[in-house]
């Protein structure tokens, strides 16, 4: 299904000028506001009643219901030289992809610019807005690149992210994405660029995608962050079911997982474990990342089987 004609997509496309904005940025409640969160990141806070604000607000409520608290919606002001350069770069590549596919019929023609959600951390936000994406924070299950959720799949994006702190604070970028002609990328792929010049991006499913895959070679030319949504989620939002099972050392778990998972995914798990050991991510975030790679069924099976042996020794 192609969502190019949705009210959300079409309305946002037509509301890029004349929005009501505020310089304060209510994300300041997360940290002392000197300077303001908005000013520090080159953002402008949208106010209730602004058409873009109302569209994004309704999209968030439709996708998340009342289980999340929406704090603020901010627009990228493209105030710095670097961010303005990124805007021009995006426009150049949009025209290039449009020319590349000119005359093609069906769903493959044109630049196919969509909106997509991507969760980021507060520490990397400023760098992304100024310089672009450096290292996609995902499990690598669909190859090397930036994964975004379609505008109608916000829940998938939030579930795939980690809370910034125990209060459930999360930062979600809503970006324009040049999809061009997409190819299906199977789970477990190690792909890092289009399989042929015919394609520009990847998806997990052509008819009803839940993931847009923008290769690492394209993520700073084909993705343009335009809005930031700050929200709070319940503490256990990502964990509707808790894994109750015997304890086991993490290196032993990795060794056991290596019998079931392909080497590239084991390498990613090892990296997450090193990050946790070096205090770059929390233990809860480590567990969430491993669960996204393995799935609960396999993880529970291994922990029970190996964990019981460890306890009996």
Supply the key terms.
313 residues, alpha+beta, Phosphoenolpyruvate Carboxykinase, domain 3, 2 domains, 10 strands, globular, disordered N terminus, RCD1/SRO1-5, RST, NAD+ poly-ADP-ribosyltransferase activity, PARP catalytic domain-containing protein, stress response
Outline the fold blueprint.
Blueprint (H helix, E strand, L loop, with lengths): L6 H8 L6 E2 L14 H4 L2 E4 L4 H14 L4 E8 L4 H20 L12 E8 L1 H10 L13 E6 L3 H6 L9 E10 L3 E3 L16 E3 L8 E4 L7 E10 L17 H8 L5 H15 L5 H12 L1 H17 L1
Parallel strand pairs: 7-8
Antiparallel strand pairs: 1-2, 2-3, 3-10, 4-5, 4-6, 5-9, 6-10, 8-9
Helix pairs in contact: 7-10, 8-9
Structural summary, described in words:
By secondary structure, the protein is α+β, with helices and mostly antiparallel strands. A hairpin with an 8-residue loop joins strand 8 (201-203) and strand 9 (212-215). The longest helix has 20 residues, at 81-100. The chain has a ten-stranded mixed beta sheet with strand order 1-2-3-10-6-4-5-9-8-7, with helices on both faces. It has two domains: 38-99 and 110-232, Alpha-Beta Complex (Phosphoenolpyruvate Carboxykinase, domain 3), CATH 3.90.228.10; 250-311. The protein has helices at 7-14, 37-40, 51-64, 81-100, 122-131, 154-159, 250-257, 263-277, 283-294, 296-312; strands at 21-22, 43-46, 69-76, 113-120, 145-150, 169-178, 182-184, 201-203, 212-215, 223-232. Residues 1-5 and 239-246 have low confidence and may be disordered. It is 36% helix and 19% strand.
